[in-house]
Fold these 4 entries.
Entry 1:
Amino acid sequence: MVTTWNKETAALVEVLGLEKKPVAITFTNDEPDVPRPKSKYLCRAIKQAADGRSFLIDMECSGCKGGSFHCGLTPPPQGKARRTLQEFLTSGERLTASIVSFLRMEELGSPPPTGLSDRIFLGPMEEAPIRPDLALFLCDAEQACRILVLDNFWDGVPQQPQVSGSMCHSAIAYPLVTGNTNVTFGDWTARRVQKYDRHTVFVTIPYERMANLVRAIPECSAGDATAEMPPEFLPSPDDD
């Protein structure tokens, strides 16, 4: 099946030399014909979707309570459940120093999309059966740089990166809620447990920005346009 997002994906994979498949993420109340896993962490589903697998995840099969509320499938924990999460983050996972720093991570970011949809689709963009809300790229630093340049080529508006907090927050929820393109490294626990390559960077494009990003490829030197550099802008051959 040829779709708009299929063609956009092919153009970006070719010009950037991407090794991993761009991942489509869609928040939906529909039930496309996609496997529903018994249990799946969202941070693992991202990695496996970039390798070609597709998933439909709901609150029943989301394997991580943190991922479930960060992406809106369940309400944020309250009462005893919140105390347990505070203890885990500060004394177990050790990703934040205190319950105060945990609060700041939450409140100074973006809110979760609580109750937005019943399900989340994740899969390779080239095979996505429904329109993506987000296009997520697993790439290296150079490819991430090129994507970001292509993204603001037309309007010049700087991205507003959100790199703190969980991977499912920074790579999924933040760009979904704000409409901002985001670049992040994920969180240390997700990287370590899911065995992401040490060079992997995550860039998420709200899908409504994709057409202009692809349209920039032939016009921008971060795509395949030829850069013309005057001699005075080139480094001196004697510069060591």
Note: The mean pLDDT is 93.
Entry 2:
Amino acid sequence: MNFKVKDVDISSGGVMIAVLNQDDAVSLDLHHGDRVGLIKGKKHAHVIIDIAESSKAVKKGEIGLFEEVLDKLKVRHGSEVKLVIEEKPISVHYIKEKLKGKKLNYFKLKEIIGDIVAGRLSDVELTYFVAATALHKFSEKETIDLTKAMIDTGDRLKVRGKIIVDKHCTGGVAGNRTTMIVVPIIIAAGLKMPKTSSRAITSPAGTADTMEVLANVTHSKEKMEKIVSKIGGCIMWGGAMNLAPADDKIIKVERPLRIDATGQMLASVLAKKATAGATHVLIDIPIGRETKVHNLRRANRIGKLFVRIGKKLGMKVTYMTSRGNEPIGNGIGPALEAKDVMKVLQRSDTRPLDLEKKSVQMAGRILEIAGKCTKGRGKKMAQEILDSGEALAKMEEIIKAQGGKKVKSADIPIGEHTYDVVATHNGKVRNLDNHVISNAARFAGAPADKGAGIYLHVHERDRVVKGQKILTIHAESKEKLKFAKKVLLLNKGVVVK
């Protein structure tokens, strides 16, 4: 049956959706959530049906198409498409198997991932898949198969070079923006480092959110390849490219649920590294009270999994553990973290030394595993590149290539509505709770409001006197500032004894 296309000017964010008038739905015996196929010439789209209850939205004989479907079929308002009835994808059955605790092989996982990428699964079905992977942990074999499935359902970056390096942090530490310092150090040393980063899942800012303060992070794969070929590296949002595209669709479900299952995390990280062409990868695993990994034993177990799975994918993966009890750097939130990064690169007297120290340590490890220097010499080499200004020059090249402008740390705008938390008595800072501080920064508006977040004036084990500033909340609205203040104070995010 043919229908006239109506452009409804709505995007689902990934799922392929079409809207039928209720009379047409009744005549075809279609219901909310049913699947149909839409055909235009040689183009075919699998879509999920929504139903309009009046002709004001979609008239009889029309079919309202979301932006994803219009793009897939290459049709416009007023075109005609053919509708054919289809069954639910077989991947839904495989999701049910995982919900029951059964193990999935490569074939079944590829069907699921392929349907996620194609937008053939509803939000509910995708959510059930994410929940199933958190409830019934992936075996090592399943994790390898999932990683391969994610790689095989996307594109690969084409970067010339025998050695391509990359890094990843398992997360849970606020303000941990080492990537934006490590990348310019590494490419200044003559290595290739095409860095794709994610937006925040549970934190006040991801690397992509912070880099976006300085430059555009949304580029095509072809633009990324050109920039890397010219400069040696970049810092971009992976979701803008078709590199392991299922990952970003899964993250959209994980974000509101605050889920980050180990198997999914391993597959997500290594798939992104493999599709970016990485040959050598450093994994940072912070250990702390509120990080994703709470003790050294589990950190080593996860680290060894990264190494083994990476080897089976043709990558040399190494890992390091780091202290993650408190935030790294002073700023928490996109603009505040961007200030920290530029202070380190610009060698400001007020730069956060803990962020610099960790970045230099990580860059040093990468230089060693990539063969740029002998073991034990990497840290010194990385520090020299940073001190010389070579890293800053490379960062400015990256910013310019990605459409940004040269900027001083002091010129980066932050939220003008502020609240200071001060010491109520003399003592030592015993706890700066990552989880509470991150939540407060999110209530202040981060990462959506770039200038929102928290600035730390002190760190754990620092001595303070009564009335001294411990931290400042920044927000772009008074209402959000009020929420952030309440979250921080009620949950005792700061302890001085």
Note: The chain has 18 helices and 18 strands.
Entry 3:
Amino acid sequence: MFVTVQSQTPPLISSVEAIEITVADMDRAVAFYSQVLGFTTMSDTEVAGESYEQLEGVFGVRMRVVQMRLGDEFILLTEYLAPKGRPIPAGARSNDKSSQHIAIIVSDMDKAYRWLRQNKVVHASSGPQTLPAWNTNTGGISAFYFKDPDGHPVEILHFPPDKGADKWHRPSDKLFLGIDHTAIVVSDTDASLRSYRNLLGMDVAGQSENYGPEQERLSNVFGAHIRITALRASEGPGIELLEYIAPGDGRPFPGDEHANDMIHRQTRLVTKSADRAARNLFSAKVSFVSSGVIANQKRELGYGSAFIVRDPDGHAIEIEQK
């Protein structure tokens, strides 16, 4: 857990690099993200050994990691060849504290939805929803949730002309443009802000309260009333905090979750000094997954040193130094 500390200057975090997703079958996952969603494979690496065991907190680990790109943003798909983890629990819902998804921007919502239907994706929403005009901050945004082959929720999102970054409004012949943010469900926005904003140094980019039938059908949660806080680092996709004001029956983050479980996602953040970041986080009584700062002299996965911690609700954050 994080405790309150004063903001750091300069911020501990310089960018959000990627969102890592644990998958059961890499070939199946790569086919889905490339053939259905338009991602491009950038690298395909198999790693094992003590440094990865210490980093991930999983003994006897052997991982296949595939980096994929969409627009300017990246995901990392990780298959644990050994040891195998558990599937996503039955009955998982959007308001569970373990819920996390990426939001992919599309150039045309109707075309994107038809394409997903042709590819027989599993619905998480009843269909695309356009948020009402009375909500100044989100009115006119349309979105749809579905699931990847492992059951991870994925969102497609379309911004009206007056919302979203300029990059999402540039002319493009592509249907899937890039990743705007990753959204995580939190139990207490203020507690999460003390970690992501005050401690890590991310900036609040926007806030909203969403409710009503459109939001209920989007989340597939009856009575959904969500406090939304958008955070940004200087580079990369954002992190969006979703606090379900109602209903309050979402399941807590499983205390025995490990990186090889299918429910696992972790957000990769870049720092200029892993040692400094680790000292500050340790002083703030953060829960560490890793045994400390783990050096990676071979740089097989693109970083020189890294460590993993958990936010106040249990979401994994990997902090790496290039």
Note: Confidence is low (pLDDT under 50) at residues 1-8.
Entry 4:
Amino acid sequence: MDKLMEIRRDDRCSACAVELLAGSTAYWIRPERIVRCVSCQAELGESVAPRRDPAGESAQREYDKRSARELAKKERRVAEDVEWREAIKEQRPVLGRIASALTSKPQITPESQATQAWKVGAEGERRVAEVLEGAAGVEVLHDRLVPGSRANIDHIAIGPSGVFVIDAKKYTGQVEARDVGGLFRTDVRLYVNKRDRTKLVDGVLRQVEVVRHALGADLADVEVQGVLCFVGCEWGWIRRTKRVNGVTALWPTSLPDHVSVAGSLAVRVTEIADRLRSELRPAT
């Protein structure tokens, strides 16, 4: 969406080329990354739709690819079985019929859990993107590629208090932060549905470092926090977020409030978002 703001550096109107000095009021057309003076914006009467990254797109694409490949493999086995039965009956009319009757036929079974996991993951990412729409004063990037890798970051929310790296997970069962360290040491671990899922925390922390690096030295003062957002989990009678190794685990509807907490970066949200947008390419 077009944004009326005080520009931070000298520029020119993209429509009439009039010089716009730093501190003057003009429209920032974010999708095209251009500036337009107030007069030209009023004459044009344009409303540019905001650019959006498609949440869950890379996970959905991977699911579609795996699903098609798995189905083709099963269909090929069925076709080969039909050919074998016809051939064996023709070659050995009696024994062939007996062998065919005693041999079970391959079936087109439901998709494997590994393939379904990509579909579930895409659904979880879309749910998180949906709730982030309601976060006031926050810009969100979805599905950004980790440089030099095939991995992606599900969501990055840039708010008044800092940057939030959000990993969406669609699981079932209760989320717990358990201290398993014993009497003389602390070892807080993340459990979901009674299984140790602390590796998810480690994964988010690696993504946090990627985002910190993308911000660069001039934005090193910006705080970057890790978040695990669990879709479909249980949180007990009294819902409380969990904190493990600096990463916050929470549920979708609590996310907008978490990322829109007031802070000193409100006037820099666009600047920070633009930096991350340029440094971290979309995964799709």
Note: The chain has seven helices and 14 strands.
